[in-house]
Amino acid sequence: MNSPATLKPLWCHIHGLSPDHNLPGIRRPPISPDKNPSHHGFPISLKTIGRSPHFMPDLTELTQVSPTHSKTTMQHALITVGLLTLSNVFMTMAWYGHLHNLRQKPWLIAALVSWGIALFEYLIQVPANRIGHQVMNVGQLKILQEIISLTVFVPFAWIYLKEKPDWDYFWAACCLLGAAFFMFRKKLLGL
Length: 191
What we know:
Radius of gyration: 24 Å
Order of helices and strands: HHHHHHHH
Helix content: 55-70%
Mean pLDDT: 76
Low-confidence stretches: 26-66
């Protein structure tokens, strides 16, 4: 009943991993009814599960970075950046596009059109954050989103809204780069 196959999805859910994630420390021990007496239908007692190395992943193996793990991490990060960039295009259009196109329309019409555009933003942003959260914490995702948001907003304001960026955009970008450094420094510097 409480075999590694049934505990693995729960362990993956608790630690934010996908159920098909390879957990090297989990392996099925050979169980024979005559050597392990059954208690209430369980092939192994519940007290044994907490102490058995067969039911808990080997954390030293999970913390070591293998080439396939770093490749997967990079893939997740790149997919997240791509999806968040696309999401921010929709977000920027939903938030500020009405200032150009719907200036003469009542605000309620502008709000409804913006909500329609924002739906597409959320349909992309939610999977982006779920994928990104497998390799980043929430603070890192938020700072990444802010950097992408400013990167999308500046050309949008300049090209679409005809507002020329000034030095304040540059200083804001420097502050965001500083924020990114502090959020990612443990990964960057190996701390």
